[in-house]
Amino acid sequence: MIRALHTAATGMEAQQFNIDVIANNLANVNTTGFKTVRADFEDLIYQTLRPAGANVAGGAQVPSGLQVGLGARAAATYGLFTPGALQVTGNPLDMAIEGDGFFKVLMPDGSVAYTRDGSFKLDSQGRLVTSMGYPLEPEIIIPPDVQEVLVGRDGTISVRRGGQQGLEEIGQITLVRFVNPAGLSRIGLNLYRVTPASGEPIEGTPGTNGLGELSGGSLEASNVQIVEEMVRLIMAQRAYEVNSRAIQTADEMLSVAKDLKR
Prior knowledge:
By secondary structure, this protein is α+β, with helices and mostly antiparallel strands. It has helices at residues 2-27, 226-258, and strands at residues 37-43, 46-50, 66-69, 72-79, 86-88, 95-98, 102-106, 112-115, 121-122, 128-129, 136-137, 146-151, 156-161, 168-172, 175-177, 185-188, 191-193, 202-204, 213-216, 218-220.
């Protein structure tokens, strides 16, 4: 019964972690480019009371062993990089990736981070930057006399200056993809960093080498499915309640055993 107390407690801890993950998904239902996170769980070590195949009286061999599990724990969290719905904004600086790929962003320490959030703005130098002011890499600078900005499906940035009829190409956006995007490390601010599990970034022009194309004037919405998350939340809540009931039952059984001496 003491074993049951600790085993059920691990189940409660696992479901609390599950609810934490679900709550984060729901909190980011309106976050541009957010990817749903799922929690994986694994059972803990087993206490073997009798191994399978052990010999018993008369030389017989038992067909199965006798083991007792000791609970569960969270094993991993992984992102589901299914595409989110495209939302047309009409803002020429907004960009959505239709397919695989990430934008490259230059961090203040000189390192590179990656994002699916294409809601870019202009800073005081005319550079395309994120909402936190991190510039897009490679750098794109919009001249101050521009009247119109067009983003091509292949990542070319064209502008129409005042007094000009034709378009002028001023830059090229490149994307990167990863063999295992679920292995990227989330650092907040809609940014990811490379890890040994993600593999090295594979860079290229949008629409080539397995990379998605760009859609100007649009943003990629979060791929969180609210109904699915609510169902998972209810299941986690019920599992938490059942584990708490197991603790209560084990406690009542211990109380009965304690009172036998009376």
